[in-house]
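Below is one such record:
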Amino acid sequence: MLACHILQIRKKAIKQAINKLTIAELSADDVVKLQAVLVSQLQLETHPKASYADLALASWMSALRLLQDDNVRVRACVRHAILDTLAAAKDSTAGMVSPDSVSDAAVLPLAVEYVVSAFARTEHGLASLSKVLFELIDAPSVLIAYSGAAGEKAQDWDDLYRRIFESESSNYFAERDVLAQNIVYYLLGRSVGNGELSRTLHDQVLKGVVTALTTLNQEAQRSSKEGRQWLGGITYYTDVFSPLFGLLSAGVAVLTTSTIPLDADLEVLASQVRVVAQEACDIHANDNATNPFILRALKHLAGNPPNSASAEPVEASFSFLLSTNNASSKLLAFLLMSLKGKRIVITGASMGIGAAASRRFAKEGAHLALLARSKDKLEKLSDELQAVPSCGRVLNFSVDVRDSVALGETMATAVKQLGGPVDVLVNNAGLALDAPAIFPSQSIKNITMMIETNINGVLFAAHAALNQGGMLEAKSGVILNVTSVTGLEAPPFPGETVYHTAKAAQEAFSNSLRNELCGTNIKVLVVRPGVVATNFHEQRVGYDRGMYSQFIDGYEPLVPDDVADAMAWVLDKPERIAIKALDVVPTPQRSLSVFDREWSARNENNQ
């Protein structure tokens, strides 16, 4: 099987190299060679002639089959090759979504979406794609439905929809069925997004969504009653996730586009879609099994209650997306945003790591409540974030985390204005003072401020998020505590005693709170930065530039964006996975006390 597929991804110039890879077990060098071959063959821009474009299409089809190969190393190799290719391709959805945040299950639809948009641009490309579909599913009427007389021939779309859950035991789909369904759905979603399809295809999309979700809901309920694994669990499998997500994406496009109003009959279908989608949300939101991308699409299909304080301008958002070029790419990227619509509270948000996290989450489409003492800095940051097209609502509150009453009131106000319980608390506020003075020489005033901010403030913010923030009532959410590698080991630097004590307390608090919240879906996570170039480290040495320069001599510290990226990666994980703790340090920081101070000189040409 492997040899068969690899031999489909070759041309004369590399034929000999490919033949060397047709072995059952691939070495590490073979994997690298295969990945290089794949990338060279998948890059459509290197195949300007029609005949070469056909070869590229054949290569893509082979690569998509290899994503489902039995050999895990082959799958990984192909997955990375596809992501590398998409990241370099123009107009690619992968360029809008960080490859590091893309789950294995999402790679196939990303690739299929690119294939559809790339090869359907020309008449020859569309004909080639249609030929591939014809060979895969032997359904010429479906191809006719897409390529022309959609109004009269579209009844066969329903046959494809019904096949989504026609499976026996664990044999869900044949590879060719998966690819056929994916391509058909993205052809469909792309056309719907651009307003090209007739009423009949709209009808078929909505009927397909109702059929698929009704089956999904019934199977989940039956499995639950029988004590078996819920069907939601299989939505992580690429052969289920990809066609289902493609179908739901097409449904979102139909329901949210304003270019083609729905008539009375379609409105009835749309109402049915919202009902079954809401039922699916209710069933699967807390099952810890359903893929979060599927849940996101379900929430958009279910819509928001009219006149609700939590209403999100879904239609306006999608109308904007669908009115622009490459609409299907933007639609897919929109649905794949892991933090889209999440209500996130960030303490210490006015600068440094907190500000970087705010900017990162704004790009992901989150609603933000920014907390810090500096009102001027918060307002300036809020204005900046509100100019980000994908950003949700932005609130800012000038509050000191040492004031538990004010913090609780702020959290309650944020819940009210954002329209729902807090999804994520980023417990980031903190400070260090008086270094390098040793403990006996430090002022009681500064010791008290560090303890009250770094310990009391963290506990108060978590307490407010759980109670006034609604996490405990919802039994879901994430508390992400930004601690430090200093919290695990006594630092060798003078002046760190109080700060180390506070960070160790944060670690203990995180571990204990995680245990106490057993029985809920609330995650308690920790990100431990190493040395970061922020105002924090300048402040801890009394803004002594010479002392600060000596501290980072010979290596490059992290920047706040590095830590923000780590936070986004941690928060992007599905409900069933928790990254309990993550150390994020500069490569030269080998441990808390050991720094490779020759690193910069050694790597000056590689940075």
